[in-house]
Design a protein that fits this description.
The protein is mainly α. Helix content is 60%, strand content 2%. The chain has a domain at 38-282. It has helices at 3-31, 39-53, 63-86, 109-120, 136-166, 176-202, 230-238, 259-283, 287-313, 345-358, 373-384, 395-415, 428-452, 467-482, 497-526, 543-577, and strands at 212-215, 221-224, 420-421, 424-425. Helix 9 (287-313) packs parallel to helix 16, helix 11 (373-384) packs parallel to helix 14 (467-482) and helix 14 crosses helix 15 (497-526). The protein is globular, with a radius of gyration of 23 Å. The mean pLDDT is 87.
Amino acid sequence: MTLTGWLQIAIYAAIVIAITAPLGGYMMRVFNGERTFLSPVLRPIERLIYALTFVDEKEDQHWTVYTVAMLMFSFAGFVILYALQRLQSILPFSQEISAKHDHLPAVGEHLAFNTAISFVTNTNWQSYTPEATMTYLTQMAGLTVHNFLSAATGIVLAVALVRGFARRSAKGVGNFWVDLTRCVLYILLPISIVVGLFFVWQGTPQNLANYTIATTLEGAKQIIAQGPVASQEVIKMMGTNGGGFFNANSAHPFENPNALTDFVQMILIFSLGAALTNFFGRMVGSQRQGWAIFAVMGVLWFAGTTTVYWAESQPNPAYAGMHIDQTVSALQSGGNMEGKEVRFGITQSSLFATITTDASCGAINGWLDSFMPLGGLIPMLNIQLGEIIFGGVGSGLYGMLLFVVIAMFVAGLMVGRTPEYLGKKLEAKEVKMAMLAILILPLSILGFAALAAVPSLGALSSLNNAGPHGYSEILYAYTSATGNNGSAFGGLNANTPFYDSTLGAAMFIGRFLMIVPMMAVAGSLAAKKIVPASAGTFPTTGPLFVGLVVGVILIVGGLTYFPALSLGPIVEHFAMQAHILY
C-alpha cells in the first residue's frame, strides 16, 4: 500500500462524486419527459419510434402490465439471440479466422442457451472464447445490442420503483416502452458514441477486417483477432454488462490499451449507478435522501476496496523461506502481482476488481483466481450482498432500496412504531415482498453450489484445483451467475452441459424472480398516500440512518453466506498462513 495508490483511489472517488449530481439531474429530465439539450435532435426520432411501434407515450401502466411488458421483451430478446448464435455460420459478417479462409461455425445448443440467458439478464457470463466462437454479426447485432437493452431494462425498473416512492395514490408506475426508448436514446447511445471515439483514439480497434495472420520471429504463425471492439467496450462498462470482445476481457490490450482507458472504464462502471441515487433524491423531493443512499454505498465500497488493496499488497506467505523479495521499492510493486497486468499494478487491479463486483459488471483486468484468499473473498461477498454498492445499472438502486425497506422495518420494531420511509407506511406486503426478493439470491447461490459439489453428478471433474480453492471456484461461479455479474474465478471449465444449464437457470432466477416481488413493492407504494412527518418519524438523511442500513446489509446479507465463505476463501487464508498447500 503506497501513497500513490491511495491518491489514485481518492481521485477516482472524487470524480464519481463530481459527476453524480449533474448526471442524476439529466436522467430525471429524461425520464420525466422534459426538454434536454439533445431534444432538438432526438425528440423527432423518439416520436417516430412510438409511431412505428404503436406506443402511446401518455399511457401510465399498472405495475403488473409494466412487469409483463418487461418479461415479454426479455423473452423475445432471448429467442432472437439464441437463433442468431445457432445460425451465425450461414449469416453475413463472419470473419475469416485462419489462412485457410475458415469461418466460425454455429454455436452449440447448450452454449447458445447459456449465452442468450447471460446477455438478456445483463450477466454476460462467457463459458467460451469470444474471438474464437462469435462472428462479428453475433457480436454486434446480438451481444452489443443486448448490452444496451439489458442495461436499459435494469435502469427503467429502478425508475419504476422510484416512482413508487415518489407518487401518491397513483395506479401506474410509468410506461415500460417509453422509459426503455428514452433510456437508450438519450442516455446510453450519446455517451457510448463519445467515449467509443475516445477508445478508438487510445488504440482500441473498430473494424470489420478479417483476423491478421502474423509470422513471429521464430517463424511460427500467430492469429491476431480484431473487429468492432470499441463500440462494445463502452456499453460493456457503462451498462455494467462486462462481456468482453476477447477472452482476456479488460486485461487484453485491444480492449484496455493503457492506464488511462482503465481509469475511464472504472468511472463508466459506477457512473450511472451513482447518478441514479441522485435521481432518486430529486424524484422524492430531497437530494439529501439520495446522498444518504450514496453514503451507504460509499461506506461499503471503501471498506471493500481497502480490504482488497491491503490483501494484494501483502507478501505471499507461500514464498516464505524462498528468499524472494516482495517488498515495495522504486523497482518493483511488491505484494501479490500474480495474475495482474504490469500496466495497471496492484492498486488499479484491486480497485477494478472491487468496482466490477460492486456493480454487476463482471469485467476484469486481472485474474481473480490469482488473488490472495481475502482479496478474492471481497469480490465474492460484493456479489452475494446483491451488488447494491452502486451496483448494476438500476439493479443496484432497487436492491439497495429493498434493504432500506428491511432496515426501516427493523427500526420500527425497535421503537414499536409502524415503519415508514419517505412518508409511505411500510406494511406487511412491502416487507414480505422485499424479504422474498432478497432471499431468492442465497437460495439460488447456495442451492446450486451444493448441487455442483455432489460427486455423483460429475461437476467436480471440471475443476482444476482441489481443496477450499476449488470450492471457492464453484461458489463464485453460481454467485456470479445469480448476481448477474458474469466474472469468474477461473480454474473451472464451465462449458459443459451441466454448468451451461444450471448457470443459465441461476441467471434467470437472479434476474427475474427478484424483479417480480420488487415491482410488487413499487406498485403497492405508488398507490399509498404520503403521511406527513411527525416527531416520531425516523430521520433518513443522517449518519444514524446510514449506519442502520449498513448494519442490516452486513447482518442480513453477509451472515447468510458466512458458513459457505468459511469453507472457501476464509479457510484457504488460514491454510496459506500455515503454509498448507492443496
